[in-house]
Amino acid sequence: MPNERHNLSSLRRRCPMLLISDKTQNAYMRIKQALLRHETAPNTFINIRTVATRMRVSPTPVREALIRLADEDVIQFAAGRGYYSKPIKADEVKAEYEMAFMIAKYSIEKNKIEFDRIPPVLVPEIRGQSDLSDKENEADGVANYLETLYERLAMISGNPKLVKVTHQFGERTHHIRRFGLMVEPEFIEFYSHMSGLEKLLLEGDQASALKSLVQQHHAKSDILQHVLEKFEFRAETSKAVLEDLLG
C-alpha cells in the first residue's frame, strides 16, 4: 500500500490532468470565466453548494475547481471561512502588462523564428458601433486579435514557456482589455498601433517594430490606470451574483 500511494502521488505530480474529471474541468472553466469578468463585488463569499446547485453537479467538482482557482490566485481562500472573489489590484495588473511587454520585446530582439512564418490572424475592422451588443462583439474581436498577436510575438522567441505565459496573461486580462476598448477611446489607438507593428515585422523592420512597441507600452501605462479605476468602480458597485454569470 505505501508503494501504491507513492506511485499515485508521483502520477499526480507528473500528469495532474489525468485526475481531473470532466465535471471538475467544466466547473473550473465556467467559474473562472465568470470571475475574470469582475462583475461581482470583490470579497464576495463563494458558496460551494449554491454554485453546485446552479451548475447541476455535486459540491465535489466545484470544490476541486475552487482549489485550482485559489492556487492560480484567481480567488482568495481564508482558512476556516472559505473562498472569496478577489478584488482588482492595479499594481498586479500593471505588472502583468509589464511582463507581457518584456516578453514581446525580448522575442523581437531574439527573432529566432521569422515572424512571417507564424500563422497570421484576421485583423478586425473598427466601425464604431453604437448598438451595445455590436459594440461588445467588436471589443471582443479586437481584444482577441491583440491577445493572439502577443502570443505570435512570443512564438518568434522559439521558447514555448514564454508562449504559455503570454497566453495566460491574455486570458487573465481579457475582460479588462475588452472593457478598455469600450470605454476608453485611446485604447482603440493602441489597436491600430499594434496592427502597424505587425506590418513592420512582416516587412522585416525589426528596429522600427521595437521602437513602436516601447512607445506604445509607455503610452498604454498611463491610460491603463484610468481604465482600471473605471473597471474597479464597476466591480465594487455591481449587484451581479456569481451564479447568474456561470452561463
UniProtKB/TrEMBL annotation:
<protein>
    <submittedName>
        <fullName>GntR family transcriptional regulator</fullName>
    </submittedName>
</protein>
<dbReference type="GO" id="GO:0003677">
    <property type="term" value="F:DNA binding"/>
</dbReference>
<dbReference type="InterPro" id="IPR036390">
    <property type="entry name" value="WH_DNA-bd_sf"/>
</dbReference>
<feature type="domain" description="HTH gntR-type">
    <location>
        <begin position="27"/>
        <end position="85"/>
    </location>
</feature>
<dbReference type="GO" id="GO:0003700">
    <property type="term" value="F:DNA-binding transcription factor activity"/>
</dbReference>
<keyword id="KW-0238">DNA-binding</keyword>
<dbReference type="Pfam" id="PF00392">
    <property type="entry name" value="GntR"/>
</dbReference>
<dbReference type="InterPro" id="IPR036388">
    <property type="entry name" value="WH-like_DNA-bd_sf"/>
</dbReference>
<keyword id="KW-0805">Transcription regulation</keyword>
<keyword id="KW-0804">Transcription</keyword>
<dbReference type="InterPro" id="IPR000524">
    <property type="entry name" value="Tscrpt_reg_HTH_GntR"/>
</dbReference>
